[in-house]
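ok so I'm stuck.
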Amino acid sequence: MSAGRPRVARVVALVLLGLVLGGACGAAGVWQWHRFGQKKTADDELRAAARQPGAPVDEVLVPGRAVDDTIRFRTVTASGRYDGAKQLLVRQRQVNGKPGFLVVTPMRTASGRTLFIDRGFIAATGAATQTPDVPAPPAGQVQVTARVLPSEDGGLGTGLPAEQIEHIDVPELAARDGVQAYPAYAELISSTPAQHGLVGLPPPDLSNPAGGAYVAQHLAYVVQWFLFSAFALAGPVILLLLDRRARRRKPDRLSPAGPPSPSATPTGPAAPPAG
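replied:
not stuck anymore, here's the structure
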């Protein structure tokens, strides 16, 4: 009875280990399933938003409405006047693999609110502390078509060269300029009159608009974690069955040898060899 106790303890330990590992992997699979659903929904909403026709900015960027994935990448139209004196450069950005600056210029629209517009890209001409010469925005009344993007977090930055900022933080920009602004900024698509001297910004990559892992990768992670869970739960059972089979096939101990059979015992002296 005492010899069986270690084996019972091993069986219990194996079962508990399988349950713990199986539960942990199953929980990870459930979490990945939720991430798969969230990513798919975000990608679908962003693609749908990007494909919608242009609409007036006041119909899309409504005060109090969150700039979520149903609004991000929406195309908007606006008219107004640029305030070139408050133009800023967003440092440490890249377009087509080249480092440089985004050029952000506030536009006072017909509604009286300010729309911060990313007019394009200008390549760096030296160190990041050197501010390049930027073409002025079109003068007078301007009509623009632009792509909505949510405000960036992180503030404008401190200790930077004049006219440079680190993030397009719309609330911070509005407070800096003392204006009432829309809750998002916009990337310029086209302008009337046309602007010159800046590199246009590429459209978003709609193959993976939300960024991060692709939808198929999340689905692969779901399958992976549930397979791990199944292996963890089935492992102890398989090991116990293999152990049971091995114990059944174990040969019995050899019994002690018995006395020789009578047929093998000599009955008399050997006959003399023939002469």
